[in-house]
Amino acid sequence: MINIGLTYENGQQEKLSLSAPFLIGRSSDCAVRIQHWRVAKTHLRVIEDHTGCHLEDLGSLSGTRVNGNRLVRYGPVQATDEIIVGPCLMRFAIPQLNRPTCEVVPSPLSNDQLESTRLIESNSKKSLREIRKSLHLGLIKALDLRRTDIAALSATGLRDYARACARQVPVELVDSLSEDEKEELIELVVTEAVGLGVLEPLLSDPVVSEIMVNAFDEIYVERNGRLTRAPVEFSSDVAVRGIVERIVFPLGRRIDELSPMVDARLPDGSRLNAVISPISLNGSCVTIRKFPRKRLTLEDLVNNGTLEQALAKFLSWCMINRVNILVSGGTGSGKTTLLNVLAGQIPSTQRIVTIEDSAELQITHPHVVKLEARPANAEGRGAITIRDLVKNALRMRPDRIVVGEVRGAEAIDMLAAMNTGHEGSLTTLHANSPRDALARLENLILGAQSGLPLSVIRDQVASAVHLIIQQTRLPSGQRIACAVAEVCGVESGIIQTQTIARFNPMTGKVCGAGLMPAVFGRLNLTVDCAIQDWFTRP
Question: Rounded to whole angstroms, how far apart are CA atoms 378 and 129?
């Protein structure tokens, strides 16, 4: 016998006990009659075998839905499955069948049976996700953060309080889980409600350098420059959005339908970018760029192959002798890491002012002042741009100015600072090559409607920028400084550059281009002979 519970759209409920096989539909020949225009005369057939109860849709127009998916065949039916036929929601309760005591050798599964197995696994996963979702929503209501004084609780106390609340939340089907499964589920839901959920173990993994949440059930991580899918997921999009809101709220940022994008940072310094609907069609999308807990040094970049030994010594010499450097490259190519390391070579007697859109620089230096831009509030007021901060930094008696990235009108003020007594400043820019970096810098200044003619802009760029370092990420995932170009001035209205170091794909290393850097002669300072030999070696 199969016990069937029926719940109609109008709230009416009915219980039946039937023996398979039987039909469901409008016809008088059907054991379960549902008089509705969305139900076919013979809508659904229910059969039973040694594996359990199976469903077969008989070609109805509106179809049969199981757990939200329209299916033609499905089985074995589980007690947690929700079967919708027209206006009726049905749940099947199948008593345990008597199994034969003899050993049965299974025959190879047919395609239909394989599909049924996949559906069982899929539905089991969906069922557990629905339980997590219900428990998460129930916990949020139970906590009632607006009425509970959580400010007085420590992080450990808050988690203990949330666990106690989660155990009291009445959620359907939780009792069907074992005690271990129930405790694991409660721990997952608590971390989603008061922590970072499934992201916490990924953030604590030192090998993971980037976390990408494409959707609540689709998470990717980057390890050693390679992307792999993580075997974890959130219970719902609500959980992802709740985590983002908890991160950005203490920082004075907001994320909602009017402001669906946000940049922020985690307490450990990791950078977070979040995008929500309506501009993200997948739901809440989160990208977290982690930074190594150990601050890298110039020697570390040499050891991991990012820089050659002679090139590292040359760049250190350039920083000491106040050479203006622009680091260009694509997303995730290592620009910020190199900027951190180069800024660490500045003499400790000098004052550094850093300016960023979202603070992520971790410069090893005793005298650093950090400034961060601020977006507008809900009323559209209070915005402080990077350009405002660059202007203000000029009044803070800086020896060096480090701008995390120029991407707008602040390029004008950055060039002005480099040209007016703040030599040795650093910044980064998104570009595919040193020549493209100069062209993009010109475009940024023209886009700022400065009113300067192109010839004047090029004179300023050539005077301000001395060296361009191009960062790239190889197919293997390794990040290297693949080219170094020197700006030599303007000739015939064109900025002239010379490449003094480039990547050799045959050897897999960066080598000198056979030219002596002009900066040696311009500064008229003594340089290590080994560095000169590396640049001029054919």
Answer: 35
CA 308 to chain centre: 31
pLDDT tens by residue, 257-266: 888 888 888 8
In single-letter form, the type of residue at position 227 comes to L
Q: What is the pLDDT of residues 439-477, one digit of tens each?
A: 999 999 888 877 888 899 999 999 999 999 999 988 888
Written as one letter, the residue type at 19 is: S
> Using alpha carbons only, what angle is made at residue 146 by residues 145 and 148, rounded to the nearest 5 degrees?
60
Tell me the Cα Rg of the chain. Answer: 32
**Domains of the chain, CATH where assigned:** 2-97 (2.60.200.20), 128-289 (3.30.450.380), 298-536 (3.40.50.300)
Enumerate the H helices of 362-484 as residue ranges: 386-393, 410-419, 434-447, 454-464
Give the chain's length: 538
Sequence letter at residue 317: W
Does this model's pTM top 0.70? My answer is no
Write out the DSSP string of 241-295: HHHHHHHHGGGT---SSSS-EEEEE-TTS-EEEEE-TTT-TTS-EEEEE---SSP
Burial of 172 (0-12, 13-18, 19+ CB in 10 A): exposed
- CA dist 282 and 241 (Å) reads 12
**To which H or E segment does residue 466 belong?**
none
What is the rounded CA–CA span in Å between residue 30 and residue 60? 14
